[in-house]
Amino acid sequence: MRLLEEKIRSEGHVLPGNILKVDGFLNQQIDIDLLDAMGREFAALFQGTRVTKILTVEASGIALACITARHLGNVPVIFGKKHKTLNRDESVYSTPIFSFTHHTSYDVTVAKRLLLPGDRVLIIDDFLADGKAVRGMMDLIAQAGARLTGVGIAIEKGFQGGGDKLRAEGVPVHSLAIIDEMNGEEIRFRPQP
Amino acid sequence: MRLLEEKIRSEGHVLPGNILKVDGFLNQQIDIDLLDAMGREFAALFQGTRVTKILTVEASGIALACITARHLGNVPVIFGKKHKTLNRDESVYSTPIFSFTHHTSYDVTVAKRLLLPGDRVLIIDDFLADGKAVRGMMDLIAQAGARLTGVGIAIEKGFQGGGDKLRAEGVPVHSLAIIDEMNGEEIRFRPQP
Q1: Per-residue confidence at A85, pLDDT binned at 50, 70, 90?
Q2: Domain range spanning residue B180?
Q3: Which residue(s) pair with A12 in the sheet?
Q4: What residues contact residue A61 under an 8 Å CB cut-off, 6+ apart?
Q5: B143-178: b or e for each residue (b if 16 or more CB lie within 10 Å)?
Q6: Beta strands A77-83 and A53-57: pairing type?
Q7: Global ipTM
Q8: B63, A58: Cβ pair inside 8 Å?
């Protein structure tokens, strides 16, 4: 998506440790024009897959998930909650997710009554690096006996390989911008149709 | 706002300790039709106040803030980040906020370059109880030398008094639903114009 790539080039910052800082338009301040354009793009990519719910993880995936839902017939959005300690509550599905950014593991939970066997679930998130968050959400969907219809990501760090591994397994992952190389302030995007 | 009050009556649950559980439509699963109606209502309430930015705190205020921004000329949204430990980063404004729900104190931060002296800031949040989160955000706005234009809240627990104290100090607080009494499953809303 040209608009997002240009925004990353002009306002993103590459920090040591392969961190891409996009807090000026996505991660702390949210550019609503861009957000709306991304939501419209996801809706176009996943329309026809009969999505009944969108799943994301707090906090920065929430905005994108809600705007996408607006463009996808106002389907409900569910966000997984992060807990630092293992959650043994019988009323929730739970999965451990390791955060690349924070170098720590969270337990992510969703109330069982919100994710149902008949649900067709679209996963939306702002970042995909090694794919651990997406796999965690896929685990929650599987626990519920629901069905994954697709994965929509704003920014994929292609060089970390998580997205391509998922695609190789047949998971329909669509990322609006895929970064194949980050070198100082130099960013190379993967050409996409 | 009639629609929100009806939703709280039909789908909310009052738990011991004056906790109102609304995770079926606001706090974990988000009803996008309702969210959009709330955003439109906030935009109507605060149009004419020349808002340049909307401020909220992660995680559950983000959806409401972004949808409100969509109806208010696509102004940027900023969300404060919660930290369990005191943040001594020179590049951020920081304020301690005590969470009524989690019985713990967070340090909430916003990058200094995102909140500017000329900004006219609308605070949006899902809940207002004793008003600590709103006062924390007001503190961040004051640290930046920016100006508060108003406070928009989805659900105010009127019986905890935080909203009325702010109003008595001249802060323009608008809540879409004000609960003056919760007694078991019985909920009494404050009549509003």
Answers
A1: low
A2: 2-189
A3: none
A4: A79, A124, A125, A126
A5: ebebebbbbbbbbbbbebebbbebeeeebebbbbbb
A6: parallel
A7: 0.92
A8: no
The total number of structural domains that make up chain A: 1
CA atoms within 13 A on the CB side of A185: 5
Give the integer Cα–Cα distance in Å for A117 and A57: 20
Instruction: Give the span between the Cα atoms of B146 and B116, in whole angstroms.
Output: 6
Say if the Cβ atoms of B58 and A63 lie within 8 Å.
no
What predicted TM-score, i.e. pTM, was given to this entire model? Answer: 0.94
Band the pLDDT of A16: cuts 50, 70, 90.
confident
Chain A CA closest to residue B80: A28
Name A183's bridge partners: A186
CATH of residue B144: 3.40.50.2020
**Test mutation, B32, B52, B68, B122, chain A, max A CBs within 10 A:** B32
**DSSP characters over chain B:** -HHHHHHHHHH-EEETTTEEE-TTTTSSEE-HHHHHHHHHHHHHHHTTS---EEEEETTTHHHHHHHHHHHTTT--EEEEEEESS----TTEEEEEEEETTTTEEEEEEEEGGGS-TT-EEEEEEEEESSSHHHHHHHHHHHHTT-EEEEEEEEEEEGGG-HHHHHHHTT--EEEEEEEEEEETTEEEEPP--
**Which of these, B103, B101, B56, lies nearest to B81 by C-alpha position?**
B56
B28: nearest CB among A36, A75, A79: A79
Instruction: In whole angstroms, give the CA distance from residue B43 to residue B37.
Output: 10
Confidence of residue A99 (pLDDT cuts 50, 70, 90): confident
